[in-house]
Amino acid sequence: MLVFLLWASLFLSSLQEQNGQDAPGVQLSGPQNVSVDYDLKDQRISVTWEDDPSSSRVPDKLIYDVEVLLTVNMTEVHSEAVDVRPTLTSRKYHWSWTSALPLECTSHSVRLRSRYQNYTSQWSPLQSITGSASSHPQVFPRSSVVQVDSNFTFCCILGPGQRLEYMKYNNILMNTTHIIDQSYAMVVHMQSPSPPSCINVYCNSPLYGTCVYVGYPPGDRNLVCETRDLESVECHWDTGRPTNLTKQRMTRYHLNGRACPNRTVSNCYQTVRVDQGERNWTLTARNPLGTLELRDTADLKKRVRLLAPMEVVASGVNASVQWQWERPQYHILLMVCQVQLNHSGHIDMRNYSGIGLRSVVLHGLAPAQTYTVQVCCGLKQHFWKWGDWSEGSTFKTEEDIPEALDVWMQIEGNQTIILWKPLTVNQSHGQIKDYEVTWGRQETIVHPPQNDFLISDRSTGEGHRVTVTAKNSAGSSLPSIIIIPRLPHRSKSSMKIVGSDGGFNLSWSASPNASCGYVVDWCPTHTKCRVEWVKVPAGITRARIHSASFEEGVRYTLSIFACTPGAPELWERREGYVKECLPKGQIQRLAAEQHGSDTVLISWTGIPPENQTAFIHGYIIYYFDTSHPSSMRIFNVTTDEPGAKNLTGIPVSSYRFIVKALTSVGEGGDSSPVFLQMNPQTDQLIPVIIISLGSAACLLTLVTILCYRNWKCVKENLHPEIPKPVWKEEWLTPLGTGRQILYVDPCQPSEIDIVCNREQSGEAVLDNNAGKGALTNTNSDVPALHGYYNQLLSKTTSGHFTFSPHTMGSPSSQLSGTVIQNPSYNLEVQASLDMGQSVGYEPDMNSFSCPNPEPHNAMSYVPVETDSWGYKFQYHIEDSSPLQE
């Protein structure tokens, strides 16, 4: 352990000796004559020093370490290594540094040392800068200029024993940092430029603060140098964005090192010789926030921009324009001049050239018109730019005779109105005094602003030839002629046309008589007016019709006339709207009437033509069931004429009807609603019933007549005669007191079984399951009887029976009978005709069943099958009858 400590001490001592020694062959004596200076305006520290002048051997390259420290606590603020190359002639060096913290806030110290490879010299003695001190708060730096979008540090120095309460920037409370002792700092980000005045910064009180200016460095660009008078150079540039700095801190300019006298505009003048060929021109722009240099290279002889002409004068119909030059040097230059004529806002540019040009003559100007003329010139050879415009000179040309009038006519009954268009300013060539209208041997004068004339005595033999001329102070125009037709124009059917973009695109078929073109005139269809017109040259059969008087939703009639050597001929007609609008008029006289049980007749009067704002393509009928408000039905009527329409299949209810007009732009012209309560048409059933009954009566009468005429045939086929049975006394045999029984000779019996219900003793029923023709009885006291009986009658009681053979086979059939208390015997029978069989007697037989036993006079009914003649018999058996016994 002791050995290790010994070796360490020896090593450290060797290092100390090495640091203090010079490098082999090199002498490091450290910086000499160190001097520190500072600039509080720019917050800059400047340090100068030099090598030891006694040293003979100096390395080729040295490094000096520079440290800036806070004097109070020796805290390092900044350090930097400075490379220098010593020379035998100059061994003095300079270094500067700008402090972010204002130098007034606290004291700063600076020291240096030299370094070569791994060898360093001793530090130079400290050079200090003393900070500011005061008995009251102070803010530093004072009146600073700061660039926008940068960070800047302010510090507040308090007096002894004072305490910081706040620091504010532009009345905004800021965060602060304690530096040392009574010094505090805050960092502000300059987001926007300052107003024309500065921004206040203070601590504890607005009385203790400073002001800061925030702006931009110079932003000038596009330097261009030229000559105007061939004796000086004029350079101009774009200033870019404003610096937002006050006048004392505004940008200063220098051209090729010489200050520009004009500080308010972006140009600079210097007197130079222009025949020196191509030269470089450098503009330096400087303000507290920065410096900018702009450069341009130019040969001034090729960059001549002439000054504006002076004393420009113009006069006459063919105006001659004269001017003067300010610089006599211009009189020998070959130049080109531009003359600008302004007439009622219309600009006309004309170019002229010549040596030292000072006058030109203007041709083609309109008579009696006012013009304003301006002149600017440039060099024709090596043209650079047009010079400045002269001041304007106004003059008026002389009058000339008017142009010919555009004449047309409008025929209304027996009257003809001669019309002509007023001449424009360019056509009248002066002020129109009057118009002269001549027809036949008559002549009249019309004064402006009237532009029409009525001719009421039209000749019936031939048309009038009418001539119209215009007159001003220079004379009369050429005559305009129009011929009025002898007879009114024959009416032509109109075709529909729809406008677009505020006018009509009109086309028509060619007329073989149109030798001089066509005339198209137009007027509202349903309004009296003065027609407007346009003339179309020969060979063209289309035109774009446009007028300032066109209105939307108004129907116009456009007439196309063929221009002939004689009177104009009506060729075609059109009707249409410039733009169709929804109908504004109302459908009138809407009525609803019930016809029949499910038919309604709707009638109305359409929108009057003068109120129509679009072509009506049809009408739409809306009807609503008022008992069901949500229901709605629509019925379309595809006609453009109002009328009536039957609606069928409408149930009986209460309805509301509305009619609307249908156009290409939608529905409109709603009628007032009409209501209808439909009622059931019961009155119409009476004629139907009467007709039906009459038809039935007629048919029945016809059948009766036919049957009467053929009664014998009908009777033989439908109701043949049947002999009545004959009763004889000998057929009856006595059977006890007051009773007799019919005795019948035995014959071949029918196979009938009379079977009584086993559960009901003494009652006979028909057993369908037994053998055919077997008559049985469940009562053992009554023997079975077989035989055929034509009749079985009781002496004291007779029966009336009917039996239906159709229910014979049904066990549930009921036998009906009526007991007649009469000693005479009567049998009611029903005859039937069985086609294809022999005719026989058949009593009516109803349903049959075994009746319930009666306490007295109970009877059992026995059916008997039909014999070969079709005869059927039905009888009853009393309880006391011999059959039961």
Automatic annotation (TrEMBL):
It is a single-pass type I membrane protein. The keyword Transmembrane helix applies. It comes from Salvelinus namaycush (Lake trout). The keyword Transmembrane helix applies. The chain crosses the membrane at residues 685-708. The gene is LOC120026260. Its main location: membrane. It is found in: Membrane. Residues 308-400, 401-490, 586-681 form the Fibronectin type-III domain. Belongs to the type I cytokine receptor family. Type 2 subfamily. Residues 1-20 form the signal peptide. Keywords: Disulfide bond, Glycoprotein, Membrane, Receptor, Repeat, Signal, Transmembrane, Transmembrane helix. This is Leukemia inhibitory factor receptor-like isoform X2.
